[in-house]
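re: that complex we talked abt at group meeting.

here r the seqs, copy pasted straight from the sheet so there may be weird spacing, ignore it
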Amino acid sequence: MTRVLVIGCGNRARGDDGLAWHALSQLGAGPLRENVRLLLQQQLTPELADRVRRAARVIFVDASAQDPPGRIRCRRLCPADCGAATLTHDLTPSALLSLTRTVYGRCPEAFAVSVGGADFGFSEALSPQVRNSLPDLLRCIRRRLDLPAPPACKNPQK
Amino acid sequence: MGRRIAIEPVTRIEGHGTITIQLDDQGRVSDARFHVTQFRGFEKFCEGRPYYEMPALVERICGICPVSHSLASAKACDAILGVRVPQAAQKLRSMLNCGEFIASHALSFFYLSAPDLLLGMDSPPAQRNLLGLAAANPAVVKSGIALRKTGQGIIEAFAGKRIHPAWVVPGGVNAGLTAAKRDKILSDLPAAKTITLEALADFKTRLAGFQEEIASFANFPTLFVGLVNPEGDLALSDGTLRIIDHQGNILADNVDPVNYPKFIGEAVEPFSYLKSPFYIPLGYPDGIYRVGPAARLNVCNNCGTPLADQELDEFRSLGSGPLASSFYNHYARLIEILYCIETIEALMADPEILDPHVRAQAEPNFGEGLGCVEAPRGTLLHHYRVDSNGLITWVNLIVATGHNNLAMNRGVRQVAERFIQGDDIPEGALNRLEAVIRAFDPCLSCSTHALGRMPLRVRLLNADGSLLRDLRRE
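got the structure back, here u go
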C-alpha cells in the first residue's frame, strides 16, 4: 500500500495555479521515502478514489484564490458531501474523500496544503510572492510526510 | 398571454447551455430551444499554424475525447501528406480510439446518467448525483470507476498519458507498442468485460421503468449517420459514411467522408453558438439527422464481435427498425464498450501490432485534407486546407454534438410538451429536460470552439417574450 499520496492539483499554464507542478517537481527531485507517491492532476476526478483508498495519508497541494498572495495554509480535511447537483467529473478534496469512504468503506487521513495565489493568467511562471513561498511550502509538506502512520479509518457502515 | 421557461445551466453535461421554453396563452408549450452559450473558436485561431501541430492543438478542444480529435486531425494531415499509414499504426490508432470510447462512455453512463437511471428521474436532486449514487449503490460507482480507469489506462499505455497525449502524429504514431504494454492492457480487459456485461444485464431489467422517457426523449423520425466498414459493420476509426432514414432505408452508402459537403450542409441559428448541420437533399431543417451510439447501432449491419453482436440482436428486438428514442443511447453505450473491449482483444492477438514501423514520413503533397472518425458522441470531421508552406489556411470542424443539434432541440421540445403544463414545473420535469440532452452526452466544449462544465438554466417566457421564471442549477 502507498502510505502517503501527495496529489498536486492545478494548471501549470495558468500562472500561480501551477504551484503544485513546481512544488511536486522539487519534492520529487529530492530524496523521498519509498512509500511516498506524487501525483499531478489538472483536476480531481472520481477515479482518483481508487488511488486515495490505497493510501494511509493524502496530502492535497493547490493554489488558493481566496487567501492573500503567498500565505501558506495547512488544514486537516474530513470527508464532506458537496451536495452539488452538478457534480460530474471534478471534485473538491473533501468530496473525493467522501466518495472514497462511501464507495470503498475507508478513508485516509488527509491534509490540504495551499498557497494564496497572486496571478492566475496565462503564464508558466509563478508570481514572486508564490515563488518565494515555495521553500516554506515544501517544509510544510515534508513535515506531513514524516508524521507517524495513522491508523486506517474504516467506515463503520461498510 | 403566453409565457417562457428557462433552465440555466443544464447540469451533468460537458459545457454550458440554457433551455428556453415558450408557453402560449393557454400555458401550453409552443416552442423549446437548447441554447449553447459558450464559444471556443478553434476553427479560426488554428489558421496560420503548421499542419503538423494540428493533432496536438485540436485535442485541447476537449479533455474527454482528445483522442478522437487527434485521430481525425492526424487523418486530415495524412491526406495532406498523401501517405499510407503503416498497418501497425492503423491498428494502434484503432485501439487507442477504443480506449477512449471505454473511458468516455463509462463517464457518461456511470457518472453522469446513472444517478437518473438508478435513483430515478424524480429522486431528490440533492441525492441525484455521483455521491448520492455511491451512498445508495456503491458497487455501481465502483464498477464505473474501474471501467473508466481501464479506458484511461489503455490510453496511457499506448500514448504516454491519459489526457492530451501527443502520440498520434501525421503519418502514424510516434512510438510502437511493446509486448509489456500489450500484456498489461490485456490483463485489465477481463474485469472490464465482466463489469460491462453486468451493467448491461442490470440496465435491461430497468428499461420497463422508463417507458415515459423512452417515449419522449427525442423519440421521432430522423435520419441516422455513422461510419461502417466494407462489410457494413460498425467502424470507429476508419470507414465510409452510411446514411439511413427512420425506416432503415439506406439513403447513401459507401460515401467517402471527403465527399461530406455533398450530403451535409451547415446552418446557424441566432440563439446558439452550436452549428446545425443537416442532410442537404432534404434541406434545412427537414434534413435532421442523428449520430452517436444508438445511431451507429441503427446504421451498421453488425458490430462484428461476438458478444456485442448478441447484445445488438437484443437491442434491435426493442423495435421493428431503427430505434428512434435517444434514451437508447445509454443502452448503446454499454454495447459499444463491449465492442471496444472485444476489438482490442482481437487486435492484440495480431503480432503485427508490435511492428516498430509505425510512421510514414513525407512533406505536404496536397493542399487539402479530410479526417473522419467516430468519436464517442458521434461522427467527427476535421477538414483542413494548407498553403505551399504547410501552414493552415482554413479549418472546418463538424463535431458530433453539432450533428445532433437539431435533434436535441426537438427532443427538448418533446419532453417539454409531455411533462410541462403551465409555469408550475415539477422538479422531475426539470430533470427530464436536462436528461434528454444528457442522453446525447453532448460536449459543448468540443462543438463550439469555454472552459467549464455544463451547469442548466431554464427560462420560462410569456407569449410577449417577458421572463416568467428563471430556474438555475449551479
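couple things i noticed - The radius of gyration of chain B is 22 Å. The CA atoms of residues 83 and 131 of chain B lie 49 Å apart.
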